[in-house]
Write a structure and sequence with these properties.
Elements lengths: L2 H9 L2 E4 L2 H10 L6 E3 L5 H13 L4 E4 L12 H9 L12 H9 L8 E2 L7 H12 L5 E6 L3 H12 L4 E5 L7 E5 L1 H10 L5 E6 L2
Parallel strand pairs: 1-2, 1-3, 4-5
Antiparallel strand pairs: 5-8, 6-7, 6-8
Helix pairs in contact: 3-4, 6-7, 7-8
């Protein structure tokens, strides 16, 4: 937790959080008492007008996501876009990122950039097309996947990957961080035997 991020929580008028329970735990640990407003992904659009009204009235709001970066495969992008349209200044306070941490720790980055797919489509056909298009760019491909779908996803894209190196990074920047390395086939078999838990990031090498 950077001092700048702590100050953003301490000095705002209210905190907007994907999961108010987790954010309140963080705030209590820092001795911070501020109103916390829920902004779940499924209801983000409906709640924007009330938040915009606060911003336009001169309030300062701090947006937090549950276990990632706001507006990057987490709620917040619609609110940020609406704030920009309304002429409200948006300031970013960088924090831990599973995407860049996974690329850094995987050893597959290569220094030439990468493409990030977020959470891939659930449809097998759309999933394969999305990954195949990304692979065609010739750089590592990074994606998020839910732990309970990870083995199946790797099995579905394995014909596209062949022997490409793959890294599954789990619970990045947290206490139980782990890296699993192999081919898609090897990792799918490993994850079938020992199903993972927590947040998972996949890095596919070139």
């Amino acid at each position: 937790m950077s001092r700048r991020a702590e100050r953003a929580l301490r000095e705002c008028d209210a905190v907007v959080a994907e999961d108010t329970r987790r954010t309140r735990i963080l705030m209590r640990s820092l001795g911070i008492e501020r109103p916390v407003i829920s902004l779940p992904a499924f209801d983000e659009e409906r709640r924007i007008p009330a938040l915009l009204a606060r911003l336009e009235a001169g309030q300062h709001l701090t947006l937090c996501s549950d276990a990632g970066t706001p507006a990057v495969s987490d709620p917040g992008s619609r609110l940020v876009a609406a704030a920009h349209r309304a002429g409200v200044t948006v300031t970013v306070v960088p924090g831990p990122s599973a995407v860049t941490a996974a690329v850094s720790g995987s050893g597959l980055g290569g220094g030439g950039g990468f493409v990030f797919l977020g959470f891939p489509p659930r449809s097998p056909g759309r999933l394969r097309r999305s990954v195949e298009a990304a692979l065609g760019l010739g750089v590592p491909v990074v994606l998020f996947e839910a732990a309970n779908r990870l083995a199946k996803t790797l099995e579905l894209i394995e014909p596209l990957l062949g022997d490409r190196p793959v890294v599954v990074a789990r619970e990045l920047t947290k206490v139980h961080e782990t890296f699993h390395r192999g081919t898609a086939r090897e990792l799918a078999e490993e994850l079938r035997r020992t199903p993972p838990r927590g947040e998972c990031t996949v890095v596919i090498g070139t």
